Amino acid sequence: RLKLLEDVHWRAEPTFPAAIAGEIAPITKPHDPAAVIGTRRDATAEEVEAAFTRAAAIQPGWDALGGEARALLLEEAADLFEAHAAEFLSLCQREAGKTLLDSVLELREAVDFLRYYAQGARQQFGAPTILPGPTGEENSLALHGRGVFATISPWNFPLAIFIGMASAALAAGNTVIAKPAEQTPLIAALAVKLCHEAGIPPEALQLLPGAGVVGQMITADPRLAGVAFTGSTDTARAINRALANRDGPIATLIAETGGQNAMIVDSSALPEQVVRDVLASSFQSAGQRCSALRVLYLQDDIVGPMLAMIRGGFEALHVGDPADLATDVGPVIDEDAKALLEAHVADCTARGLPVTRLPLPPETAKGCFVAPTIVELGSIRDLTREHFGPILHIVRFKAGELAQVVDDINAVGYGLTLGLHSRIAETRRFVQAHARVGNFYVNRNQIGAVVESQPFGGEGLSGTGPKAGGPHYLARFATERVMT
Ligand code: ADP
């Protein structure tokens, strides 16, 4: 059992002197809400205003630095993140309730984002591209930052998504006002502190902690050139409306939102792969990944043995303290999240659906734990919202119904991840051709982004694209200028 830096007491403060104190909120451990590990002081309207003034003033200079200089600064930040791994892993466990495995993956992804976008800054924001033209004419195209960008991030990847969006905006020559999720400002505060230590000017990356109301103040400012957002579909819509209602430049919105992710398993699938991948995709991170499997479609002629094996693995999951190395499933983020998930399970039970739940060990009683749950459903269409936690829904289908299954999955309107376990090439081609989904996983687990090799993001209700960690991401943060 690792206990790292338990005595460190953090405060997430806006990164500039406070004029008027905003709301002060305690930050607690999801697995032990009585344990206060730090405080969050919310940014005030005056501080938001001051942050924009500072960010707008320095942005032309930050842009003029050029891609190579910005790359060096982001790479220095990546080195500092690695050097502070122990603090980050400890904070991921304590503030976000992540297991050690998830914490390590999170830090790895954060560092990968910093290095990948640094490389992008170097390649795409260096010398202008020479364009063809008549002899004697010099035509070129250069990418520049758009201006002041806001990043509004969620608690489920409090480091990787937070720094991924911020580093992309910085790499492209924007200055950044970064609002972390209200549940996880401490990890963000450490990340920003290290970026400043790396040499990124404090005016170029400013932290504005707070709840949604701080996000509303930020997105109302006419100086905003764009927003990179990850969170719920409803909040993305609210931000879109806020941006449309302001004066000032037409702002870009890059949004990565919810999902209703399915996996289709036909009778040619290998059971041992299916069990491994279903459990990892549904229950790792307590199901709190954008990519997590929510609805498993099992072909009816294998449903008995396949379900028996899945249940076997399910019953072996260890739920508990994320600092315990034996833990597979930690807590959910907070009491509100727990209440929503429990209400859904209660509703399924009331509707007479077959529900299986893991008994929770006694030591989880005081924390925000939700028992891993399997529910049998008639169709993915029966779900009206995303259930962001350790709940797997099972739907049976018959051979010959594959087209209907894909139609049903498309009909929910999300388009984030889809998994398929099948050894039939024709099935794979059919699903790939017809599924409207951003990330399609074949004969493997569906489990989020791998920077550079598996860029991540959805379509439809799941977001605007482009994919984080992919080759087209940085350009969306930039404006193109042509010289002829
Ligand atoms: P989740 O369901 O993951 O908590 P949210 O969409 O509620 O997703 O939150 C994601 C981020 O959006 C958080 O940082 C939150 O504070 C912020 N947020 C919530 N409401 C608004 C809003 N109206 N305007 C801007 N940001 C908001």
UniProtKB/TrEMBL annotation:
Active site positions? E256, C290
Q: What protein name is recorded for this chain?
A: Bifunctional protein PutA
Instruction: Spell out where the chain crosses the membrane.
Output: none
Question: What this chain does, per the record?
Answer: Oxidizes proline to glutamate for use as a carbon and nitrogen source.
Underlying gene:
putA
Span within the full-length protein is 545 to 1028 of 1044
Q: Which residues form the Aldehyde dehydrogenase domain?
A: 27-478
Record-stated family: In the C-terminal section; belongs to the aldehyde dehydrogenase family.
